[in-house]
Structures are given as C-alpha cells and as structure tokens.
Amino acid sequence: MFSKELVTLAGLALVVPQVWAGFSSSSNKNVAVYWGQNSRNQATSQTRLADYCSNSEIDIIPLAFLNVIVNPTTVNFANAGDNCTTFPNSNLLSCPQIEQDIKTCQSTYGKTILLSIGGATYTEGGFTSASQATTWADNIWAMFGPVQSGSSLHRPFGSAVVDGFDFDFETTTSNMAPFAERLRSNMDAATAAGAKKFYLSAAPQCVFPDAADHEMLDSSARFDFVMIQFYNNWCGASNFVQGSSTQNAFNFDVWDNWAKTTSANPNVRLLLGLPANSGAGGGYVSGSQLDAVIAYSKQYSSFGGVMLWDMSQLYANPGFLDSVVSALGNSGGGSNPPSPPKTTLTTVTRTTTTKSGTSPTGSLVPQWGQCGGQGYTGSTQCQPPYKCVSQSVWWAQCQ
Questions:
Q1: Of 54, 46, 60, whose CA–CA distance to 335 is shortest?
Q2: Of 358, 252, 259, 345, which is closest to residue 299 (Cα–Cα)?
Q3: Which positions fall inside the GH18 domain (predicted)?
C-alpha cells in the first residue's frame, strides 16, 4: 500500500501499472464502485469517469443511471451530464466525454464498465408485456452494445460499448425476466460471434426475496455477479454481530443458498454492497465491524468481493478503500483514492438520485437520515424544514 496521504492522479500514474483486470469470476476480491450520481452532491465531489479508472483497487464501475427504458428520454449522471449535449429534436443526452472515458477505462486500465439501469427515481414499473420487454431489451442493446449498422437509435455514448448491464430497481416491477433474458441472449450471441465477453449484474436489497428484482434473479437469465445492498435495510452490515457464528439479521447465508440452488448460474458471484461513507447510506460500517463482516462473508464460496456506493462518497473518505482492499486480502498496487482535479466538471445543475442517509439522533431525524421503510422502527419525524420522502419500499429519508 502507498502512503495514507492523498496523491494526485498524475503521481499515481507514475507508480502503478497501466492495465489491471476488471471483474473476475474466479476471484473473491472484486471491488465495484458506482459512478455517476454524485450522491455527496457537491460541485467538485464528482469528476469525469476517467479520473477514477487509474485506481488499481477498483475493478468494476457501474454507470448510474439509465432511469427510463421505454422510449428513453434521458440518462442521469448528475453533474457529469453538464458536459453532454442533447440529440437533435430530443432530450436524450449525447455524452462524448463519457464515450471517450469509457474507452480509456477499458483499453488503458482494463476496467469493467457497466450501464446501471433503474435507480431510486425509476418509475416505469417494468413493462406491460413480455413482448414489450424483449423489444426494449433489443433497443437498449442497440443503444449501448456494439454499434449496429443501419440502426437509427441514438447512442448516448457514441461508439463506446459498455461491458454489460446492471439492474438497480428499487420498487416493484413487471416483466423484467424477459427483459433480462433477452439482454443476456444478445450479449451471449455477440460474444459467440467474436465480440468481447459481456456481463450481467443486479443490485437487489438484502431483504430476501428482493421485491423489485426477484423475478429476473430467479429467471433463466444468467447473472455473472449480484451486488447486494447490505445497507438501508435491517439485514445490513451494521446489524452483523461480531463473534457470532449465527446471524439473526445479516443474511449473506440466505443469498449464498440462492446462488447455489436457484440462480441460473450456479457460479454467480455475490458482492457485499456497502456505503462508502457515513453520508452514503444508512448502516455505514468501518474499522473492526468492516473487517468482521467481510471476513464472515468470505467463508461462503459464492462471495466475490465488495460493492461501494458511490464514487463521490468514497473519494471524500480517505483510507476507506484501502481498508476494504486489506480486508479482502488484496496486496499492493493500490492507493488511497486520490483527489481528482477540481476543474473537470462544472457545477451541479441536474437532479441527482441519492441513496444517502445518516442514522437518526433523538426524536427528530436530520437531513438525509432514514425516517421510514419496511422493517424500520426509528423516528419518522424530520428536523424542520425537512420532510420524510419515500425512496423505495425499504427506504425513506428526510429531504
């Protein structure tokens, strides 16, 4: 490991290799970090995608979010969208900077770059029929997969091709199984025809079965890895009991059983999803609790590493990524998250999708704290002038 002091990206590039592997199905040390939503919500807390790809401790970067599927009118990448323009006669963003950065992250640094579909502001509820689901799976594939000759669909990332798709749905959906199955079929066909390998992932809540994603997770679609949100829920990492061989709340064992007995891919990898900072989600853990919950999860053969929400929060929490990597058992080649240049992106002008939250204190919950959701037993009253706003069946927060 390098010094705990922050280093510049330029300095980091001089001391680490130029190419690292992305997701590995044979590894239990994968690290995924979501980028795009700037949940820390400060103008300089999220810079362009390529700024983060030189960090050798990160393997997978899901881009969050495509939050409209049927006739998509937008992609939402918070302040990163300020460097995009719109296609003619459309509100859909064209993002040449992200296009360039995806290619750099893939070719120079070997990162696995996924497009995450959904997010907390996704409201379509899935599809009206299986036919509509497969139609839009084909369209999303044409928009973000390999360039298809003759297609008239807009491509927000231009000629860049993502390495796959991630599903992050947080409310009940319909006909998601055929959507996932068709995307999987398209990806496998492209790989068989000589294209690169593509990956399918999902980010369910730890509550089992997940209300939004269970249909697709139990379908014939083969998921390569599943990044379970062990936060914002009673089954989260903060309720893991150190020193106990049995857990009443933390339920990685339940997900491990699903992976081995129900998943279409019996070798699916499960990533332990955690908040990257105290403001990133309810149930942030660090220190001995972080080490203990990772050590416990590693005993399961399906364990594939750690997912963190999100990049802006991680880079505001020096030393946390090193702690995660150390607990996973990785050695060397990494650093604390460096401070990205503060001039890369302009100020935030677009609506962000956050999963932020802090633990309630007293009888009134502070801004961004949890104030409701299934299984929640704390205060539901927010400090003035904030109101309790539902984000999903599992989570409501003071905004």
A1: 54
A2: 252
A3: 29-331
Q: Residue 297 carries which side chain, given as an amino acid letter? A: S
Find, among 387, 375, 382, the residue nearest to 361 by Cα: 382
CATH of domain 9-357: 3.20.20.80
Burial class (CB in 10 A: 0-12, 13-18, 19+), 4: exposed
Q: Which residue of the set 5, 57, 124, 170 is catalytic? A: 170
Note the helical H segments in the chain.
9-15, 50-53, 96-107, 130-144, 176-192, 214-217, 252-261, 287-297, 311-314, 320-328
pLDDT per residue as tens digits for the range 16-66: 333 446 999 999 999 999 999 999 988 788 999 999 999 999 999 999 999
Based on the number of CB atoms within 10 Å of its own CB, is 384 exposed (0-12), middle (13-18) or buried (19 or more)?
A: exposed
User: In b/e form, how buried is each residue of 244-263, taking b as 16+ CB within 10 angstroms?
Assistant: eeebeebbbebbbebbeeeb
Q: Could you tell me which residues come within 8 angstroms of residue 32 by beta carbon, excluding any fewer than 6 positions away?
A: 23, 58, 59, 60, 61, 62, 227, 271, 305, 306, 307, 308
pLDDT, tens only, 270-319: 999 999 999 999 999 999 999 999 999 999 999 999 999 999 999 999 99
Q: Is 73 a residue whose pLDDT tops 70? A: yes
CA 325: distance to chain centroid?
17
Q: How far is CA 113 from the centre of its chain?
A: 11
Residues of the chain with CATH 3.20.20.80: 9-357
Pairing mode, strands 370-372 and 395-398: antiparallel
Residue 336 near residue 12 (C-beta atoms within 8 A): no
Question: Is the model's pTM score more than 0.90?
Answer: no
Alpha-carbon span 331 to 43, nearest angstrom: 33
Tens-place pLDDT, residues 348-391: 222 333 333 333 334 677 666 677 776 667 778 877 777 787 76
Q: Which amino acid is at 24?
A: S
Is 170 an annotated catalytic residue?
yes
